Amino acid sequence: MTDPSRSLLAMRTTAPLIQNITNYVAMNIAANVMLAGGASPAMVHAKEEASEFAGLAQGLTVNIGTLDAEWAECMVLAARAAQDHGTPWVLDPVAVGATGMRRALGQRLLALKPTVIRGNASEILALAGADTRGRGADAADGVEAAEQAAHALATQTGGVVAVTGAIDFVTDGTRTARVANGDPIMTRVTALGCALTGVVGAFITSGPIFDSTVAALAYYGLAGEVAAKTTQGPGSFQPAFLDALYAMTGPDLDEGARISTT
Ligand SMILES: Nc1ncnc2c1ncn2[C@@H]1O[C@H](COP(=O)(O)OP(=O)(O)OP(=O)(O)O)[C@@H](O)[C@H]1O
Ligand SMILES: Cc1ncsc1CCO
Ligand SMILES: [Mg+2]
């Protein structure tokens, strides 16, 4: 593992253009989070331009949170274009186990081999076809319950899988890492997982995929800890979190990151 600051500084140096096909709930917070971190987000999803844009962006993220049939097609088109161009792309399988529509789309996107899959434990379990108590967008299973599912998905796609929660788990099928940064208040603000998916999409454009993913999670969780220290609840947490993402230095990150690898 390289120092997480290397990934952060590499990302900030390039300010990568990241196309995000994300949900209506997440669009604003995800774009603000990515800008605060130093990336250049674009929320582009129209059928007529989604794949063209995927050919010019440095990275793509696909989040199935607020789905409809046309958006599903845009997601597949953009992911296919990313795959054709060798552009790294991240799948966020929001509530993938909830309905037949989500399960079917999840499998189509999986077949396009996402560079990284980032989801909560219930979503990773459902995507891997395992039993989960989760129904909606919030996790109902602990991260540890999804470790085997994450491993299976990484082996299937050849990519990296990140399961987020109290202690995040990351695997590429061979290596594993755990990231113990973060604060429980982060589950009380909507779409912070979706916004993290955008940050992962930005980090992986400028370094090794596994190390960059782990660095993105540590950076994000640590900013959450910093913001939680100075605020009293979900409302005031949000602006403090953007400020913390913006202000975090490389040395801050290396000092505060709680990463263990095996
Ligand atoms: N109990 C917890 N303690 C500390 N940090 C947490 C906890 N739960 C989640 N986090 C952190 O919150 C961030 C978002 O992850 P989470 O797993 O909540 O995403 P999510 O369920 O996909 O969210 P959403 O769907 O609302 O966008 C991550 O940085 C994660 O580490
Ligand atoms: C609340 C919610 N519903 C669909 S997407 C979303 C954002 C968190 O995943
Ligand atoms: Mg989510």
Question: How are the elements arranged and paired?
Answer:
Layout: H1 4-14, E1 17-21, H2 27-37, E2 40-42, H3 50-56, E3 59-63, H4 69-85, E4 89-92, H5 100-111, E5 116-120, H6 121-127, H7 147-157, E6 160-164, E7 168-171, E8 176-179, H8 192-203, H9 209-229, H10 234-247, H11 250-256, E9 259-261
Parallel strand pairs: 1-2, 1-3, 3-4, 4-5, 5-6
Antiparallel strand pairs: 6-7, 7-8, 8-9
The structure holds adenosine-5'-triphosphate (ATP), 2-(4-methyl-thiazol-5-yl)-ethanol and magnesium ion.
Summarize the structure.
By secondary structure, this protein is an alpha/beta fold. Helices cover 50% and strands 15% of the residues. It has helices spanning 4-14, 27-37, 50-56, 69-85, 100-111, 121-127, 147-157, 192-203, 209-229, 234-247, 250-256, and strands at 17-21, 40-42, 59-63, 89-92, 116-120, 160-164, 168-171, 176-179, 259-261.
Overview of the molecule:
This protein has one domain (4-135, 146-261): UDP-N-acetylmuramoyl-L-alanine:D-glutamate ligase. 50% of the residues lie in helices and 15% in strands. It is built from eleven helices and nine strands. It has a nine-stranded mixed sheet, sandwiched between helices. The protein is globular and about 40 Å long. The termini are close together. It binds adenosine-5'-triphosphate, 2-(4-methyl-thiazol-5-yl)-ethanol and magnesium ion (MG). Adenosine-5'-triphosphate (ATP) is lined by residues 94, 120, 137-139, 164-166, 168, 182-184, 186-187, 190-194, 196, 220-221.
